[in-house]
Amino acid sequence: MPILIVANTFPLLSELKFVKLKSLNDGWVGGKMLVSFSLENYRSYRKKAVLSMEPGERLRKYAKENTLGIAGTTEKFLKSVALFGANGSGKSTVVKGLELMREMVLRPTQDIGQPLPFEPFRLDEVSERQPTRFEAVFVKADVKYIYCFAYTESRVVAETLQERRLSGTRSKTKTIFQRTADGVRPVPKGQGKAVKGTRPNSLLLYSLQANNFTPAVQVFDWFRNDLIVFDQQVDFTIFDNGLLNDERVKKELNNFLRAADINIVGLGYREVAVPKTTTQLLEKFWQLYGATEIPAKQPIETSQRFLYTIRKRYDEQGRRISDAEIPLSAESTGTQRVVLIALAMISSQIQGNQKTVVFDEFEEGLHVEMAVGLLNLFNSVKNQNQFILATHQLELLDARIRTDQIYFTEKNYRGESDLYALFDYGASVARSDVAFSKRYIKGQFGAIPVINLENFHADLNQFKDEGNLGEYE
Q: Where exactly are the structural domains of the chain?
């Protein structure tokens, strides 16, 4: 069974041969991880909803396997959470909200007239005139950052960046800047020009990082390199492709792909030359990405790495004759997910560069045993990344997962989504001998679809009687 193979794969990860930090054996890492994400007045979420990666109070189950700690501190965070709920209840909206926040940080508006991606709750008389608000709390380089902003279609109405160093007992939260309708207070030292040059429909964070202001650079870098939201456009080059030059890593990766039972015998990459770029096109490229200094005006030639999978080729008699290279972008969603997960886990163990990886419809392209096996692998001592999964796969409720790692989404009669953790039901939930999946289906935790197809069935039969449909059983 793939689940058993996956559970025993990664021999290098279990031995930690490449990792210099001994503390990884005890679940303590240098620290780059999400603490919480909240959204308010975005799509179906009228009220503030919070997805927290902080462990539930006094919950000790699977503490070593399912949590990560920050070395030199008492801080600990969950390695994974899974979101369950009916279709249209708001699971994907949480993922889309985090993805939208990331996109707004990384890709600023290009002119004063460009509208912001404003999608408020529209099913009451007030919310559609109120701003949308996002907040991300995360750890990077021994510092906890709190970054939030609120906006309408035409302007950013509020923006705040705070930080607190995790080392030291007297560390306090410090406000780096706070942007309101009355201006920016305090103005970071030496950043007056960047503040004045920020348009109403642009984030101050982007202007500050472009001006090499360290806290803004750290926050920007986390969104760009440490947060991965999976869709069809995932950039696999965020992982150091030099990893594939190491034969030990290549062997480890190939073992994982074979264990995943997806008929792939290896993974490789190819350097593809990019034609020389004209001066004008090069200038537009750098301006588009907000460069403060445009490189020298001369054509350049670059190259880009493209990943490909290696599959066996056979003749008509079923004999293997060679290998075929398939671009990773041409592979199925499930295959891309497995490759991304393998790269994230191996990269973090070797280089200590933990990622927060987010999947919508995690089970897509994966059979049940594989999905459960991967979740159990996420919740293992070997893993040093964080994973956030929106899923319909109820079998995941009975994997090695804690009540603080299980979130539900539910939508009320007014079309408002709610997000809550199973941990909120209290300690008595965890002591039951009945599987979470069975109790969920019975409606004990809410968040399940209430479907009545009798009227729909009757309508179809009526159409059949009227001669509009064929036989319908």
A: 8-235+352-441
By the 8 A CB rule, do 118 and 151 touch? yes
Residue positions counted in the chain: 473
CATH no. for 8-235+352-441: 3.40.50.300
Instruction: Provide φ and ψ at 32, rounded to 5°.
Output: -145, 100
Residue 161: which H helix or E strand, with range?
strand 156-165
Average of per-residue pLDDT across 102-111: 95
Question: Tokens 């869709």, residue?
Answer: 231
Would you state the pLDDT for residue 236?
Answer: 75
C-alpha to C-alpha distance for 313 and 236, rounded to whole angstroms: 25
Burial of 54 (0-12, 13-18, 19+ CB in 10 A): middle
pLDDT tens-digit series, residues 172-193: 999 999 999 999 999 999 999 9
For residue 97, give the 3-state DSSP assignment.
helix
Other CB atoms within 10 Å distance of the CB of residue 437: 16
On whether the CB atoms of residues 349 and 18 are closer than 8 A, the answer is yes
Give me the phi and psi of 161, to 5 degrees please: -130, 125
From residue 39, how far is each of 96, 251, 356, 417 by CA, in Å?
A: 10, 42, 18, 11
Q: What is the mean pLDDT of residues 21-27?
A: 40
Q: Is the pTM of this model over 0.85?
A: no
> In angstroms, what is the C-alpha Rg of the chain?
25
- From residue 371, give the alpha-carbon distance in Å to each of 62, 63, 102, 258, 344: 19, 22, 26, 15, 16
